[in-house]
Amino acid sequence: MSPENTPQASCRLCQRGPTAVATLHQHRGRGLTLRHLVLRGPLCRECGLVAWRHMTLDTALLGWWGLVSLVATPVTLVLNSIALVKLLRTPVTPAVPVFPGSWPQPASPTV
Ligand SMILES: [Zn+2]
């Protein structure tokens, strides 16, 4: 197993595991300028899929507006597709039980 595919202990966003080492990209063309964001893992499946959905949809809708972006946008979408495969191969994060801070007291009978 290569170091890139070695599972990390905790997700960088929610601190839970198991995780995948996946890098997500978001690209926006703005005429002569552009904006490119990168989110590097480790990411758990849930956080990774939420980020993938947001970053890929934003790229698909707003990435094409620029000369450089006509090339950068399809490359970004391919890179995100590779990251999606890694995230889908990651096991689902187990649910964390939530306990209330104080248990409700039963109402005392009124006479
Ligand atoms: Zn997470």
List each distinct ligand once.
Answer: zinc ion
Reported for the largest beta sheet, the result is: 2 strands, antiparallel
Shape category: elongated
Number of domains: 1
Q: Rg from C-alpha positions?
A: 20 Å
Task: Report the order of strands and helices.
Answer: EEEEHH
User: Whole-Å distance between the termini?
Assistant: 70 Å
What's the helical proportion of residues?
25-40%
What structural class do helix, strand and pairing data support? alpha+beta
| Uncertain residue segments | 1-6
Structure annotation, total helices? 2
Major β-sheet strand ordering: 1-4
Q: Quick check: average pLDDT?
A: 86
Taken as a percent bin, the fraction of beta residues is 15-25%
Number of strands: 4
TL;DR of this structure?
The protein has 111 residues and is α+β, with helices and mostly antiparallel strands. It has 2 helices and 4 strands.
Give short descriptive properties of this protein.
alpha+beta, two-stranded antiparallel ribbon, elongated, binds zinc ion
Notes on the structure:
This protein has 111 residues and is α+β, with helices and mostly antiparallel strands. The chain has one domain (3-88). The chain is built from two helices and four strands. The strands form two sheets. The protein has a two-stranded antiparallel ribbon. It has a two-stranded antiparallel ribbon with strand order 2-3. β2 (23-30) and β3 form a beta hairpin. α1 packs antiparallel against α2. The chain is elongated and about 75 Å long. Residues 1-6 have low confidence and may be disordered. The structure holds zinc ion. Zinc ion (ZN) is lined by residues 11, 13-14, 16, 43-44, 46-47. Zinc ion binds at residues 11, 13-14, 16, 43-44, 46-47.
